[in-house]
Amino acid sequence: MATETITGTAIRRGALRGRDFRLLWTGQSVSKAGSAVTTFALPVVAVRTLGASPLMMGVLGAMIWLPWLFIGLQAGAWADRRTKRPVMIGCQIASAILIVSIPVLAWLDLLTMWYILVIAFAAGCSNVAFTAAYNAFVPFLVGKDELLGANTRLTGSEQVANIAGPGIGGLITEFSSAVLGLFVDAASFLACAGLLWGIRAKEPSDRLLEEGPRLSFRADIRAALRFLVRDPYLRVLTGASASANLLLSGIQALVVVFLIRTAGLSPWAVAATTITISVGGLLGAFAAPRICRRLGSARALLVSTPVTDAFLLLFPLARRGGILLLALAGVLAWATGIVMRNVIVGSFRQAYCPPGMRGRVAMSTRFVMFGVWPFGSLLGGLLGTVFGVRQALFIFAGANILADIWLFIGPMKRNRELPDAPV
């Protein structure tokens, strides 16, 4: 079987069929399924058990994403200097301990909204460190030529997990309580840690990935930021994603309150919405390679993004009766486009960035993209309080379409394909 060499490391072609990738794939799928249960269960706990207001739900969303602002850049530089797999394992174990504490305190009748906010922030920090290592580990494990296929599989299984997770969470909530579902997430983190432990591939020393003398920690971060800001492709794609995330975080902060209180629906409607998003995500993940082959990766982004974003305007129409199905259809089309874009852009970024900078550039990008999320969550809570939840959702959905103007700035609009290396 043929191999290629990347910065001193032999990458076996056909790695997608190998044992190591299967372990990573399975571990991520299990972990994402557990997290999907928590995505359903935690807001339900906040709303139904602790009586959280729309503003407090915005604060909860902000606490989950604030770590990207506080440690996002540092995590990227830190991950680039370390072997990635132990970092990933440690983060999964830490996340399990944090999440399991919530149902324990709930059973002891000691759970408060403030504690949930603290745990949301701490678990977010663990996720930031894991993501920094994970984004640099995938290209090492499969090689540049198979990144699109790897990300299609990883993202596709994530969406399948997201389909199963809310259903499991809904059943647990119906027959027991939402806090019990958090045990499922904790167990999934531990299972993922065990599977990652079984990977045999030996990562190269970070010294092999360096393209010059070792820089200071701050210089590493500055170099990644300069690379991101000066590159015409990364700059535009990061701006587009940041604008979309600012608006989508406002929507996410209001979804549970909107469906349960404003639309008068049951928690099953929350699960149905999450499942619909995941089904759309699954379609988008597996459509991405086909759309790229037909249109080219750059044109696929330019065509699919504004078209699918327009369907999000149907979601604020949700209410009892058949109109809910129309709203969910809009969510399905929108989610298909979102995940298609994520697969294309994520694969491009991993192939495009120099190996020694993958962790730093990935986290610098996420620092901007996810750093705006807390502000969007707070904005969602504020607009929901001032204008009403349904009206706020219409505002966010309309602004999300306007944010797609970013994609038509710079060289991407003139090309069929995104490049696989800086020019």
Word description of this protein:
By secondary structure, the protein is mainly α. It has a single domain, classed as Up-down Bundle (Growth Hormone, Chain: A). Helix content is 77%, strand content 2%. It contains 15 helices and two strands. The protein has helices spanning 19-49, 54-80, 84-107, 113-142, 147-175, 178-197, 206-209, 217-230, 232-262, 267-295, 297-309, 323-352, 358-371, 373-387, 389-402, and strands at 3-6, 9-12. A two-stranded antiparallel sheet has the order 1-2. Helix 1 runs antiparallel to helix 6 and helix 2 packs parallel to helix 4 (113-142). The protein is globular, with a radius of gyration of 21 Å. The chain starts with a strand and ends in a 21-residue tail after the last helix. Mean pLDDT is 81; it is low at 1-13 and 206-210.
What are the SSEs and their pairings?
Blueprint lengths: L2 E4 L2 E4 L6 H31 L4 H27 L3 H24 L5 H30 L4 H29 L2 H20 L8 H4 L7 H14 L1 H31 L4 H29 L1 H13 L13 H30 L5 H14 L1 H15 L1 H14 L21
Antiparallel strand pairs: 1-2
Helix pairs in contact: 1-5, 1-6, 2-4, 2-8, 2-9, 2-13, 2-14, 3-4, 3-6, 4-13, 5-6, 5-10, 5-12, 8-13, 9-13, 9-14, 9-15, 10-11, 10-12, 11-12, 14-15
The tally of beta strands, per DSSP, is 2
Helix content: over 70%
CATH C-level category: Mainly Alpha
Mean pLDDT: 81
List segments where confidence is low: pLDDT < 50 over at least 5 consecutive residues.
1-13, 206-210
